Amino acid sequence: MPMLFLPADTSKMMQSKKKRLDFLTKNYMEGSQQKLEQLSQQVSSARQQWETEAQRAEDQHETFLQGAQQELKKDMASLQKKILADMVSIDQFGRRDRE
């Protein structure tokens, strides 16, 4: 089988293609790295926004619960006063009947 020799032009062409492939691969990898960094920043930003909104919702919930608790205390105090007033009224009514 005869040995195959590449002419100088073919060798230069192959070297040129290799350099071009190396260049394109390097650019692709750099572009991919930049896109990955951008995506990472977007994910980080979205996570921070979610955490902020979750904290705000938790704070609002806590505020709502505190308000509801205060309202319940007022209602209970009012109800206790009414019950006490009714008991006093019933007691006075009972005394009148006995007199």
User: How many individual helices?
Assistant: 1
Q: Whole-number average pLDDT?
A: 89
Fraction in helix: over 70%
Low-confidence parts, pLDDT < 50 over ≥5 residues?
A: none
Report the β-strand fraction as a percent range.
Answer: under 5%
How many β strands by DSSP? Answer: 0
Largest sheet: none
The rounded distance between the terminal residues' Cα atoms is 140 Å
Structural class: mainly alpha
Q: Name the shape in a single word.
A: rod-shaped
Determine Rg (CA atoms, Å): 42 Å
Spell out the key features of this protein.
rod-shaped, 99 residues, mainly alpha
Written account of the structure:
The chain is an all-alpha fold and 99 residues long. It is built from one helix and no strands. It has one helix spanning 8-98. The protein is rod-shaped.
Question: Can you describe this structure in just a few lines?
Answer:
The chain is mainly α.
List the helices and strands and how they pair.
Elements: H1 8-98
